Amino acid sequence: MKAAHAPRSLRRRVFGQLDLRLYRHLSATNAAVIVVILAAVALSVAETEPGIVRGNEGWFIAANTGFGVVFLAEYLLRLWSVAERAPQHAWRERMRFVVSLPALIDVLAIASSLTPLLGFNSTPLRLVRLARIVMLVRVGPFARACTLLGQAVASRRFELLVTAGLAAIVLMIGATVLYWAEGAVQPEAFGSIPRAMWWAAETLTTVGYGDVRPVTALGKVMAAVMAFAGIGVIALPAGIMASAFSDAMAQHRARLAKVEEAE
Amino acid sequence: MKAAHAPRSLRRRVFGQLDLRLYRHLSATNAAVIVVILAAVALSVAETEPGIVRGNEGWFIAANTGFGVVFLAEYLLRLWSVAERAPQHAWRERMRFVVSLPALIDVLAIASSLTPLLGFNSTPLRLVRLARIVMLVRVGPFARACTLLGQAVASRRFELLVTAGLAAIVLMIGATVLYWAEGAVQPEAFGSIPRAMWWAAETLTTVGYGDVRPVTALGKVMAAVMAFAGIGVIALPAGIMASAFSDAMAQHRARLAKVEEAE
Amino acid sequence: MKAAHAPRSLRRRVFGQLDLRLYRHLSATNAAVIVVILAAVALSVAETEPGIVRGNEGWFIAANTGFGVVFLAEYLLRLWSVAERAPQHAWRERMRFVVSLPALIDVLAIASSLTPLLGFNSTPLRLVRLARIVMLVRVGPFARACTLLGQAVASRRFELLVTAGLAAIVLMIGATVLYWAEGAVQPEAFGSIPRAMWWAAETLTTVGYGDVRPVTALGKVMAAVMAFAGIGVIALPAGIMASAFSDAMAQHRARLAKVEEAE
Amino acid sequence: MKAAHAPRSLRRRVFGQLDLRLYRHLSATNAAVIVVILAAVALSVAETEPGIVRGNEGWFIAANTGFGVVFLAEYLLRLWSVAERAPQHAWRERMRFVVSLPALIDVLAIASSLTPLLGFNSTPLRLVRLARIVMLVRVGPFARACTLLGQAVASRRFELLVTAGLAAIVLMIGATVLYWAEGAVQPEAFGSIPRAMWWAAETLTTVGYGDVRPVTALGKVMAAVMAFAGIGVIALPAGIMASAFSDAMAQHRARLAKVEEAE
After folding, report:
1. Which residues on B lie below 8 Å from D208 (Cβ)?
2. What confidence category does residue A4 fall into, taking pLDDT thresholds of 50, 70 and 90?
């Protein structure tokens, strides 16, 4: 059963290092890849700030090219070693890998990193390179968090739909009431329901920037009533999400403990 | 027992399509009606924004008339088919339907949609047409959410009364304290308790627009003390609502599962 | 055992109407008194607003005098009927009543209502009349809420002390960090720790008026770190209060149900 | 077994008074030390405010020197009496004490208090003296709170890591979206992702100062979507912390009760 040929054996070891499984600790190689991804994301974020880039254009091009080469090498190794999933159908597994979402994100990130000749500060290129931020979903703990969040959403989709509908009604009623109370006095901020919805959104989330707010006595009374009545309703989906996520995490932990015990 | 006459049979099928029951999935017709209602509400919201309406007045009149015709047709079909609830007392059931709240809302929405000849931009007409937003309560998931919320409020009315009373006291104490501390310095914002209540409302909900805020050292200390002491109390009714709603939703889900099993 | 004399019988009936017990429904008289208290509080609040008082001084004096007479009559009836608590020691019970906190608040409210000859708009009188707001504690549901809140605080005093201490440390660390980061740039807002505490208070409660806020890059990073780390800690006492209050309310409800069953 | 020599007996009593154990009530001496520490911290905070210090420089120097002497005396007594922990290895215990974190903080606080000759208002000295705020960790209830918080963090480190990662992703996505939507219109506030993160931080914590906010329709829609989607996610780590802390506190309480019972 064991691989007899050196290449097969090497491929298996490479596969073991690169494969990410949900209920396992990270391999050393995967940990290194995560560090590189985080550095590349930090670079993508930093290069949007002119104050940082100015005078260091050369370094940024070099770093981007370097990350591109590393991601290209990792991509090719994955493409080669993924055959280990079903050695009899190596090319079918490789095709599956190529069309998987993480692999497509990788291709985009590699392409944007390896095209520095297009000129550094061109806006389109910079926006493409931001796609690299999505590579964060390949980082172990983040990937787990996203998976767990997805399970949590799925398990409570009925509650989330109902409370989201309720939150939408409250938001619309709030906007309609303030449109009615303040529309004539502040046409810029409350002159239509779509405009008043900006007020409703920043009030019912309790962000409260203060750029739009009622100024008449009637508008203030209405706004206070809407705020007291609405904040609880708006918080309902968030509360349901939090408890669902907490449950999903407890289950994940139990499964993780079982897998570790079995090994 | 089965309807022998073609008309009766048709009426029954129409009734089955239009009737909305709490523990059932939506019929195809009801799903279509919901889409139409959502579109009509979106139209009502959009037509309050002059930037969207200008130059498209004709389209808006046409769309409103169209929605009016659809809602009229649905109303008449409901009026006709509702007799199936008690075929022996067809007209009694129809009278009951006519005076029910959803049907009255429908009449208002139909009337406001089918009077475009009164001139498009007149403010009174626009306000009447906003009544159509209330039609959202006929949309399946929203109607369920409202019913569940009503049950949740009823089941905890004692707790809600008590905590709402407490929140009202805290609000009034906060306003009185700041009126006392800042009233002389900022008469516009804190010159009376009713004025100071606007500050108390936006602070204790943590919205914090920033249009009114203490400026003296004493006022700031008082405001900080009120904020720390009061935010928890103000959040009590919202927390009770959330847990009551969550319980009501769990019960609803269990009943839904039982109904589906029984079928 | 039953009262044989007419006066004793009348006194008992009056006592039964005026006495407020924690685990009973309100008597008709008590409900009427609550309505009067709420009206008197509303009057006290309204008369701080010059825009409402101007031109209606006469009505306000009359209303205040009227409320004063009603509260005086109620006070005297209570004083007379409280003897029913222990008919053998009528005057001892009356003395106890006179020195009880609710009765002292009543005296203050009556005195401030019946001295309109001192001139209507004088500030000291207006402040004294605000004491009437404290009469809210005599309103049935509010009194219960305050009692329950007191029990809730007492039952978790250890947790509340510990989390309040933690919140105080976080508040002070936040103020110190921003004093260090922004003190030189914005001496008015962050030039000392006491000044920076206003920023810390409005940020960690998430009120965020926006009158004081970091402007340097370092200050913004520090503020964001403090906000993420601190908001959870600041919310700990409020969360503990909420769960303690919720428990106290459940117990109260159970006792209320038992008392009603026993009757 | 009992100490026969007078010095040993005195040392034991001093040790009993100064030693702070987690599951015991405070000794009278420890309570006094706490009051002195709180006063010294209040002094450190107050002396950053020029309006308080001006004209009272002499009093501040005297108070600082006084606190320094008290802390020095306490430090020396602890150093002497700590030998009681293991009388056979007195000097080993003293060395352990000297290099412990609380003792090092004490040395710093004492040194900064006893160097008033360096000139009162010099900024470096003032900053050093702020180190005294860290002495709060030696105050009983605060020390317990910090210990319990540490245990709470440790017991849920997996959940906290995952949710913190999720919060970081949401923060970065929010900043990227607004950078994309508003970067061209408001280069000062949204011209790069690091700049837009200040907006994301103050919005997703719902602080909402209002210094940076979207102004275009697209930006407002994006900001509202990010706020509704993100606030729940950002609150996840805080909620996990709160429940973990609450559990740790309940365990601590149980242990405290057991220790008291055993005595």
Report:
1. 207-208
2. very low
List of domains in chain A: 6-138 (1.20.120.350), 154-262 (1.10.287.70)
A:D CB pairs within 8 Å: 103
Burial environment of residue A147 by CB neighbours within 10 A (0 to 12, 13 to 18, 19 or more): middle
Is residue B15 packed enough to be buried (19+ CB in 10 Å), middle (13-18) or exposed (0-12)? middle
What CA–CA distance (Å, rounded) separates C91 from C73? 19
ipTM beyond 0.90?
A: no
On whether the CB atoms of residues B84 and B15 are closer than 8 A, the answer is yes
Chain B residues whose C-beta is within 8 A of a chain A C-beta are 41, 45-46, 48-52, 127, 130, 133, 136, 139, 141-142, 144-146, 148-149, 167, 197-198, 201-202, 205-211, 234, 237-239, 241-242, 245-246, 249, 253
The torsion angles phi and psi of D86, rounded to 5 degrees, stand at -150, 85
Model's pTM, two decimal places? 0.86
Q: Cβ separation of D253 and C158 shorter than 8 Å?
A: yes
pLDDT in tens, B60-112: 888 888 888 888 998 999 899 888 888 888 889 899 989 987 788 888 778 77
| Chain C residues inside the 8 Å CB shell of D207 | 203, 206-208, 227
**How many of the other CB atoms lie within 10 Å of CB of B103?**
17
Burial A44-75 (b: 16+ CB within 10 A, else e): bbbbbeeeebeeeeeebeebbeebbebbbebb
Tokens (6 digits) for A229 = 């009545």
Task: Name chain A contacts of B48, Cβ cutoff 8 Å.
Answer: 179, 192-194
Q: What is the 3-state secondary structure (H, E, C) of chain C?
A: CCCCCHHHHHHHHHHHHHCCCCCCCCCHHHHHHHHHHHHHHHHHHHCCCHHHHCCCHHHHHHHHHHHHHHHHHHHHHHHHHHHHHCHHHHHHHHHHHHCCHHHHHHHHHHHHHCCHHHCCCCHHHHHHHHHHHHHHHHCHHHHHHHHHHHHHHHHCHHHHHHHHHHHHHHHHHHHHHHHHHHCCCCHHHHCCHHHHHHHHHHHHCCCCCCCCCCCCHHHHHHHHHHHHHHHHHHHHHHHHHHHHHHHHHHHHHHHHHHHHHHC
pLDDT tens for each residue of B192-248 = 999 999 999 999 999 999 999 999 999 999 999 999 888 878 878 877 887 888 888
Q: Which among C165, C173, C195 has CB closest to D141? A: C165
For residue A40, the model assigns a pLDDT of 85
CB B18 within 8 A of CB B74: yes
